[in-house]
C-alpha cells in the first residue's frame, strides 16, 4: 500500500481530518489519565461519534482495531514516548521511539504513524533525540508506504507554570514546522499561534503538506469551537484534539460539533447544537 493510499484512508473526501488523540497514558503522567481510565469505553464512545481517526499507542491500538466492521475511524499510531510533561522534571529527560515502529504500524493496519519534534528551552539533548527518532522512522516509512506525521512542539520553560506549556510564538513555531517538513513529514501536527489570524503563515511554511492543529489543554466549549473555526479559515486541513474531547462532559457531542466545523464549515454557534445544554 502506498503513502497516498493510506492518506486517503486518513483524510475524508474533502481533504480534511479530525484525529482524536487518546495516547496520553503513554507519557506516564497521572493527570493525563483523567477520564480515560476505561479505554474500552472511551474508544467505543469515539467510534460511535465517528471522527476520521483515533490516535493510540501500541498497547491500546488493538482496542480500536479489534472492533468488527468497516465503519470505524482510522488508526494513527503514536511511536515515541518521552518524560517531559511532569511538573517536576526528572534528572534525565528522554524521547525514544518504540521498536520496529513502522512494522508494528503495518501489523495494526495504521493509516499513519506520529512522532514528536520537541523544542524545549535549554534541552538540546531532547531535541537531538527527536531528530534521531525522525531520521530512523523516515526511511522505514518510505520503504513500506507509511505516512509520517511529525508533531513540532515549541514549549515554554518548565519553571514558569510547573510543567512545560505551549509557546505560541509564531517566530518559534515557523522554523520548527519547516524543519519537520525538511526532515520528511507527510503531515504536520502543530500548535496554534497566539494570534490565530497569523496561522496562514504556518500553512505556507509547510510547503503544501497538510497541517493539523493540536488542541492542547482543555478550554471552554465556545473558545475551542471558535478557535477551530478560525484555524480552518486560515487553511488548516484539520485538527488533532485530545483533552478537549475526552475530558468533555459529552465526548460524542463535542466530536460531532468539531466534525461539523472541520468538514461542513459550520459556524461555532451552529456547532454548539451538537453538544447540548
How would you describe this protein?
With about 280 residues, the chain is α/β, with parallel strands linked by helices. Helix content is about 40%, strand content about 15%. Strands 1-2-3-6-7-8-9-10 form an eight-stranded parallel β-barrel, surrounded by six helices. It has a two-stranded antiparallel ribbon with strand order 4-5. The protein is globular, with a radius of gyration of 17 Å.
Keywords:
277 residues; alpha/beta; TIM Barrel; 8-stranded parallel beta barrel; two-stranded antiparallel ribbon
Protein topology:
Blueprint: H1 3-10, E1 17-21, H2 39-49, E2 53-56, H3 61-65, E3 74-78, E4 80-82, E5 95-97, H4 101-107, E6 112-119, H5 124-144, E7 148-154, H6 170-182, E8 187-190, H7 200-205, E9 211-214, H8 221-233, E10 238-241, H9 243-246, H10 251-264, H11 268-271
Parallel strand pairs: 1-2, 1-10, 2-3, 3-6, 6-7, 7-8, 8-9, 9-10
Antiparallel strand pairs: 4-5
Amino acid at each position: 500500500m502506498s503513502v497516498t493510499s493510506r492518506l486517503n484512508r486518513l483524510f475524508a473526501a474533502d481533504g480534511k481530518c479530525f484525529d482524536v488523540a487518546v495516547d496520553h497514558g503513554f507519557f506516564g503522567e497521572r493527570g493525563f489519565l483523567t477520564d480515560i481510565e476505561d479505554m474500552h469505553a472511551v474508544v467505543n464512545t469515539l467510534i460511535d461519534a465517528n471522527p476520521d481517526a483515533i490516535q493510540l499507542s501500541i498497547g491500546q491500538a488493538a482496542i480500536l482495531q479489534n472492533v468488527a466492521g468497516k465503519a470505524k475511524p482510522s488508526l494513527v499510531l503514536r511511536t515515541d514516548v518521552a518524560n517531559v510533561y511532569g511538573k517536576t522534571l526528572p534528572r534525565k529527560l528522554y524521547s525514544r521511539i518504540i521498536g520496529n515502529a513502522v512494522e508494528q504500524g503495518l501489523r495494526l493496519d495504521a493509516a499513519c504513524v506520529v512522532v514528536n519534534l520537541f523544542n524545549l528551552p535549554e534541552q538540546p539533548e531532547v531535541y537531538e533525540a527527536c531528530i534521531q527518532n525522525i531520521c530512523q522512522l523516515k526511511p522505514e516509512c518510505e520503504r513500506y508506504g507509511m505516512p509520517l506525521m511529525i508533531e513540532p512542539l515549541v514549549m515554554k520553560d518548565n519553571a514558569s507554570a510547573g510543567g512545560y506549556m505551549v509557546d505560541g510564538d509564531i517566530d518559534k513555531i515557523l522554523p520548527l514546522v519547516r524543519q519537520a517538513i525538511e526532515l520528511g513529514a507527510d503531515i504536520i501536527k502543530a500548535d496554534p499561534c497566539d494570534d490565530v489570524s497569523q496561522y496562514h503563515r504556518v500553512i505556507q511554511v509547510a510547503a503544501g503538506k497538510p497541517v493539523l492543529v493540536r488542541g492542547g489543554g482543555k478550554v471552554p466549549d465556545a473558545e475551542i469551537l471558535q478557535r477551530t473555526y478560525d484555524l480552518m479559515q486560515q487553511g488548516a486541513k484539520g485538527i488533532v484534539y485530545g483533552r478537549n474531547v475526552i475530558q468533555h462532559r459529552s465526548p460524542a457531542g463535542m466530536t460531532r460539533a468539531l466534525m461539523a466545523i472541520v468538514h461542513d464549515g459550520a459556524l461555532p454557534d451552529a456547532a454548539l447544537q451538537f453538544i447540548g445544554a
